[in-house]
């Protein structure tokens, strides 16, 4: 087992803790988080949101590289030595990572902020916290790291909007999971070309 695989394996229990924490918080606060199989319209929104997220992330990442140079990424470092790990991370994103993070950031955080401040402040606040959550995934210059997390914040705005529009947390879960899976498939293809 290489270092990247070990790091990935050690991170999975943390995602279970995130899921458990979010679930516990939602129960404690009696916050409803509707979840159901997406309707045809919701499925189309998932597809459009994944496409918009990937295009936005690739475009903003190119801009970030121009403005601030390269940054290191925890995931990039993990998969560099084992490209197949990118595919495992992609699958784990669909099964565990996206459900855990979306339950926390869309269900708990955005749901609670919506009660207090309304939809758009909730979307913005949850997305800002989501981007901050991911700051530790990057290294390099401070501005490069902030801009890299900003890319995540922008795609998170799309996911928050999708949740508000549908009221179904399955929509941002699927969008997030398929977005991550798409990026991991692209990484795998680049690393094995």
From TrEMBL:
Q: Which UniProt keywords apply?
A: Hydrolase, Membrane, Protease, Transmembrane, Transmembrane helix
> Where are the bilayer-spanning segments?
6-23, 44-63, 83-105, 142-162, 169-189
- Name one process (GO BP) from the record: CAAX-box protein maturation
Give the source's domain of life in one word. Answer: Archaea
A Pfam entry, by short name:
Rce1-like
Tell me the first and last residues of the signal peptide.
none
Q: Which residues form the CAAX prenyl protease 2/Lysostaphin resistance protein A-like domain?
A: 85-181
Q: Sorted alphabetically, which InterPro entries does this protein's record hold?
A: Rce1/LyrA-like_dom
GO terms for MF: endopeptidase activity
Q: Which PANTHER family match?
A: CAAX AMINO TERMINAL PROTEASE, CAAX AMINO TERMINAL PROTEASE FAMILY PROTEIN
Kindly provide the name given to this protein in its UniProt entry: CAAX amino terminal protease self-immunity
Q: Which organism is it from?
A: Halolamina pelagica
């Amino acid at each position: 087992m290489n270092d990247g695989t070990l790091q990935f394996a050690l991170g999975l229990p943390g995602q279970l803790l995130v899921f458990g924490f979010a679930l516990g918080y939602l129960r404690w606060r009696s916050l409803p988080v509707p979840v159901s199989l997406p309707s045809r319209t919701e499925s189309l929104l998932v597809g459009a949101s994944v496409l918009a997220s990937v295009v936005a992330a690739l475009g903003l990442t190119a801009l970030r590289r121009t403005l601030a140079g390269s940054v290191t990424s925890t995931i990039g470092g993990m998969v560099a030595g084992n490209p197949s790990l990118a595919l495992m991370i992609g699958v784990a994103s669909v099964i565990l990572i996206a459900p855990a993070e979306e339950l926390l950031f869309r269900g708990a955080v955005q749901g609670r902020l919506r009660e207090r401040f309304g939809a758009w402040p909730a979307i913005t606040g949850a997305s800002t916290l989501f981007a901050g959550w991911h700051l530790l995934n990057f290294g390099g210059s401070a501005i490069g790291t902030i801009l890299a997390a900003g890319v995540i914040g922008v795609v998170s705005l799309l996911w928050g909007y999708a949740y508000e529009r549908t009221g179904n947390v399955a929509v941002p879960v699927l969008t997030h999971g398929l977005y991550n899976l798409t990026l991991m498939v692209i990484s795998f293809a680049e690393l094995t070309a």
